[in-house]
Amino acid sequence: MRGGPRVLLTIWAAKLAALALRVTGRAGTHVPGRIARRLHPGIIGAIRHPARVVVVTGTNGKTTVSNLLAEALQGEGMRVASNRSGSNLAAGVAMTLIDAVTWTGRSRADVAVLEMDERSAKLILPGLVPDILVCTNLTRDSIKRNAHPDYIAWVISSALPASTTLVLNADDLIASSIGSDANPRTHFAVDRLPTDGDTPHGAAVDAAICPVCDAPLVWDYWRFNHIGRAHCPNGDFRSPTAAYRAQQVDGPNRRVVLDLDGDARPATLINPNIVNVYNEVAVAAVLDRLGIARERLVSAFDRLQPPTTRFQEETVGGVELVRLLTKGLVGVACSRAFEYLASFSGRKAVVLNIDEVSERTTDVENTAWTYDADYDYLATSDVQQIVVGESAATTRRCGSRSRACRRSASSRWRRSSPRPTRSTSRARRRCSTCTACTTRSSPAPRCRRACASG
């Protein structure tokens, strides 16, 4: 068996840990994956891989693209190993590979489709050596962890094996250039749309000058942020030519023409949101590179839909209800959601449900990302109501992070006493984040930093 007895013992330990979690009613891949990497730090490279390995990364869209790819390949009768739950750090990828082998280490999957966090590239790519890596885009992300998208491009490029074929977004001036000259590459794009402009505007434009001579770029068309096509007036830089393109995008009728390396074919548009148009053409490019027959490739979009965890649309009581999940603390993702919601005709009410528990429990309250969001999309007469608040999940989860907060919250829930409201006395004022502060006049010492009312 590949890797020897240490790999086998690591597989057993991780599988047993996952089994124990399931027996106790707790699903998850992160803890078993951490155990595996602790026992064997090189387990990602040592374990047997499926015959084909595809990695999906990028700032936004990687969960959607990886899920769509997995669904399409399963529709082709392939056995697919995929971290669909979104556990995209090294531990999650390790456990996905472990789940894809038997107890004796033999692979039981034909292909792996693995979502990868951009910052984890150096821990994953050298051992994994994927056949294909698709990068959806590289835009501004959480400031505290991802810095500038140019830095993330360097992180990915420095970890890429030379044999990996790259499928890159030609309209992203940063993502389109990752990798080295040794990497085979192809590009995808969305042709100019009626809503595109010629001059960048908005809160976040991260590529505005030529990377060679520093001259201001001239835009052939500009879509958002640094997404579009541009060239250097001195001839030192130009957006790459895309082999795979979305053309004649018809949002209302859900139709699009997919140009597959010169072979134009009409297809179903899975979703008219511009980010999902990019996701669809990226999926088409990867499926074509994997050798899927183009007739079946195009017909796959008749049944594929974005994951309901990211997008859901339904009609309730004669009212169209659209749910969009955007990446937390990312103004660029919020802007795309605002733009899509503004595209609906008629009167609209917008509810912004903000989950910021991760910031509160790590003692970080950096709100700078809100200034990267283009709220102007909502400043129209047909948006008649905007409601802003925290999610219920945020309120309930805070107590799981702080020991003092957790202890007070758990005892309170055991007593099943009613929650106080804001009309109660100041001494029993309810914290907007957890229940610890309801039992005393001020937050618990170790909860104080986490509580907004502290």
Automatic annotation (TrEMBL):
Domain Mur ligase central per the UniProt entry, residue ranges: 56-179
Region of interest (Disordered), ranges: 406-427
Pfam families associated with the record: Mur_ligase_M
InterPro entries found in the cross-reference section: Mur-like_cat_sf, Mur_ligase_cen
PANTHER family assigned to the protein according to its UniProt record, in alphabetical order: LIPID II ISOGLUTAMINYL SYNTHASE (GLUTAMINE-HYDROLYZING) SUBUNIT MURT, MUR LIGASE FAMILY MEMBER
Protein name per UniProt: UDP-N-acetylmuramyl tripeptide synthase
Organism field: Pseudolysinimonas kribbensis
